[in-house]
């Protein structure tokens, strides 16, 4: 796998994770449970703002007040993951999914964690567990995660299947679109790669990685006007990116 893909995967995982710690189990609500839920939400807010010390304090307090609160287990697992404390992260992910197997957000997040640890088969199982819940509203993103993880493992065929399933649910899912463009490019299906790039362009803002894919594709199709146009966008928006340096050195001409 190339460096650009790995970088995109990491960013994609982290940005996706921070919006996922909602939902969970339905249980009778006591006074302690209400207080625990408030502290969990505060902890999540501090986590999203990067105030990890305060986030940890609130989440630990939430679990003291309600040790069975799976949303708190999920959120503190995300925090420990950010801090690189993998044993603690895994412990709390397991608590969340074992206590409430239908908690799809936690299943998905645990899958992302496992993929980062290169435990690809286990990660795939967690993504599928998330998708099995018919009430889960983020199934397209879980399929997309499964596809990105399959690419990371080197299985482009499986990645393609998952990306297609994601796009059946949400035809404008940016990462699935640009990864399908990359897969098509690698298979020398350049017109199809162009079509996916165009769909990406209509659905999302340019990134350095997506612009590099566009430049490489148009170069293979010998449309040098399009290459020049995309290069101008790259230099204007991302002049300091690694991808811009590759373009400047002509490395896109494979």
From TrEMBL:
The lineage of its organism: Bacteria, Pseudomonadati, Pseudomonadota, Gammaproteobacteria, Thiotrichales. Keywords: Repeat, TPR repeat. TPR repeats lie at residues 36-69, 70-103, 140-173. It comes from the Bacteria. This is Type IV pilus biogenesis protein PilF. Pfam families: TPR_16 (PF13432), TPR_19 (PF14559). PROSITE patterns: PROKAR_LIPOPROTEIN, TPR, TPR_REGION. NCBIfam families: type_IV_pilW. InterPro entries: Pilus_4_PilW (IPR013360), TPR-like_helical_dom_sf (IPR011990), TPR_rpt (IPR019734), Ycf3/AcsC/BcsC/TPR_MFPF (IPR051685).
């Amino acid at each position: 796998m190339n460096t650009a893909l790995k970088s995109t995967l990491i960013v994609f995982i982290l940005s996706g994770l921070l919006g996922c710690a909602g939902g969970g189990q339905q249980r009778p609500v006591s006074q302690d449970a209400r207080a625990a839920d408030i502290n969990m939400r505060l902890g999540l807010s501090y986590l999203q703002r990067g105030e990890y010390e305060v986030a940890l304090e609130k989440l630990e307090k939430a679990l003291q007040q309600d040790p069975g609160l799976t949303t708190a287990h999920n959120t503190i697992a995300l925090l420990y993951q950010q801090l690189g404390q993998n044993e603690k992260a895994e412990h709390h992910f397991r608590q969340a999914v074992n206590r409430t197997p239908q908690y799809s957000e936690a299943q998905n997040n645990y899958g992302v964690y496992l993929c980062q640890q290169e435990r690809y088969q286990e990660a795939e199982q967690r993504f599928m567990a998330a998708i099995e819940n018919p009430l889960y509203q983020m199934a397209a993103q879980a399929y997309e995660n499964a596809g990105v993880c399959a690419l990371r493992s080197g299985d482009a065929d499986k990645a393609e299947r998952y990306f297609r399933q994601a796009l059946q649910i949400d035809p404008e899912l940016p990462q699935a679109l640009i990864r399908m463009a990359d897969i098509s490019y690698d298979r020398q299906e350049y017109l199809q790669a162009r079509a996916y790039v165009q769909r990406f362009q209509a659905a999302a803002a340019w990134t350095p990685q997506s612009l590099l894919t566009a430049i490489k594709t148009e170069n293979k199709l010998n449309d040098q006007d399009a290459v020049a146009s995309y290069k101008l966008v790259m230099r204007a928006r991302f002049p300091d990116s690694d991808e811009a340096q590759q373009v400047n050195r002509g490395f896109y001409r494979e």
